[in-house]
Amino acid sequence: MPPDEAEAAVARLLELVPEGHEVTPTGLAVYVDEQRLRALRSAFPAVTVEQVEPGWEDAWRRFHTGVRIGRLWVGPPWEDAPAGALPIVIDPGRAFGTGAHPTTRLALELLVELEPGSLLDVGCGSGVIAIAAAKLGFRPVRAGDTDAVAVDVTRENAGRNGVTLEAKMLDARTDALDAEVVIANIALEVVEVLATRARCRHLVLSGYLAAARPALPGLVHVARRERDGWAADSYRPE
After folding, report:
1. Of 60, 77, 103, which marks where a domain is finished?
2. Which of 24, 129, 144, 156 has the fewest C-beta atoms under 10 angstroms from its C-beta?
3. In which domain, by residue range, is 139 found?
4. 88-116 pLDDT, tens digit each
5. Which of 33, 185, 214, 212 has its CA nearest to residue 97?
6. pLDDT tens profile 200-229
7. 168 Cβ contact partners less than 8 Å away, ≥ 6 residues apart
8. What is the C-alpha to C-alpha distance for residues 103 and 50, in angstroms, rounded to an integer?
9. Do 44 and 131 lie in a common domain?
10. Buried b vs exposed e over 31-46: b needs ≥16 C-beta within 10 Å?
């Protein structure tokens, strides 16, 4: 797909297959049954189909390895964290977010630079960012998502990591977004809406391509990080 259509396509893909997708050298891949395949063909007429080999459910584990982000290490339960790192152990099962995607890594890079305080993670996915915040000393930590599965998985992963946080259903367009730090790794159009509603001293945003520059009047741009064509930005009120 053309680069300028990639973000919208990924957002639509996550609606159809919220369990997540695999990035391949030729595009994006998902594993679906015949019923979901029909919905995918309707949204993406050019989709191609290949029958998967037996054991495909676990094959992806070969490609999912831990990543180091400052003091943090984010990785799966079948890997050991390096000595001296704060481990964030995420079982990448039913919700989007393993910590390996560039937008998650970029958001965490900006987060580790902030002074701890209260924090709200908007669009928490599997809870990577909220759990990292709790490990870094942010209190209290709240996490929200429009997907009930994501909320459940965030709670499960928080328990697995021994941290305390509140996870519940949250709509960035209508619900209150109040905390010292508000962080969101979601689609650009939602980012621009929530940024006007957030009441915070630091706003960390990601989930969009590096070519995009969120239009956020009334906020001062503090820093930007870019990786593999994606970006994250931090802001503060004027």
Report:
1. 60
2. 24
3. 65-237
4. 998 766 546 667 789 999 999 999 999 99
5. 185
6. 999 999 999 999 999 898 999 999 999 999
7. 142, 143, 144, 151
8. 29
9. no
10. eeeeeeeeebeeebee
